[in-house]
Amino acid sequence: MRSNARNPNQYGSQIWKGLLKIDDAFRLQYTISCECTDQVLWDNNYGKNYSVSHEPLKVMILNLHCYQEDNQDAKFSQIAKAINELDVDVVCLQEVAELWNDGHGDWNTNSAKIINDRLDTLYHLYTDWSHLGFDKYREGVAILSRYPLLKQESKYVSSSHSAYSIHSRKVVMAQVHVPCMGLINFFSAHLSWWDDGFSEQFKKLSRWATNNQTEDVSATMLCGDFNIAAGSEGYNLVVNSNEYDDQFLAVSDYGVFEKIFKVNDPHWHDYLADDYRIDYIFMKQSQ
Predict the structure, then answer these.
(1) Do residues 202 and 189 touch, judged by C-beta distance below 8 A?
(2) How many CB atoms lie under 10 A from the CB of residue 72?
(3) 265, 259 in Cβ contact below 8 A?
(4) pLDDT digits (tens, 9 = 90+) for 85-120
(5) 264 by DSSP, 3-state: which?
(6) CA proximity to 72, closest of 109, 103, 104
(7) Predicted TM-score of the model (pTM)
(8) How far apart are CA 94 and CA 63, in angstroms?
(9) How many alpha carbons lie under 13 Å from residue 233 in its C-beta half-sphere?
């Protein structure tokens, strides 16, 4: 670490160099002191402290709409380009589709595979399907990660397990080790609308996530298309659980985030009146 500081004798400047052993710390705050014969002068960056940190973890969530987009192939390339340019670490995809092929699937038409093949560097990929979509596709979810997948699992969170019911909803889970952060569990989910079983499905997903939140896991993230509008009854279910934080609000609108998740303002619904999101990253609160 190198820092420049004013020389107290006012006759010039000096360059000081110091090395700190920080091991796997993600972020470091520090102040600088100058010890003179009669006093110690401190520089704490005007009360804010100096800081250095690694790049934050970048997570992308996207519903691929099961091959229903116009110019579909070009959009696969556009998505891959965005992942490359944004340098995304983990991608959680929903409505991942591949040709039905009498239920056997067709791996070369899998949309998550196609996107992965177009990345500058291949990511680790885990995907599974839950039901027949649009009468011609195996429809499911996927996780792409630049880091190796140490653990992976998929299971239904819906009461229906029928491949011929759109109410059959399967979630995939992958555990990765993120440098300087530790083990993180990611779940890629596409849940049903509130009237079609969201409550039951979210509760099953939450129990599954909790059972995998062991002492060596640093964080758990539920990612994807939850089909509940911000401020709705389904969103209220998540908020009232006091288990998960809405990461979009945490990083983009802390005032609203604090009123919903920290202060428990009784009028928090009003702050989401114009928020029409149904896609979220919910991070499990620290234990």
Answers:
(1) no
(2) 14
(3) yes
(4) 999 999 999 999 999 999 999 999 999 999 999 999
(5) coil
(6) 109
(7) 0.84
(8) 5
(9) 6
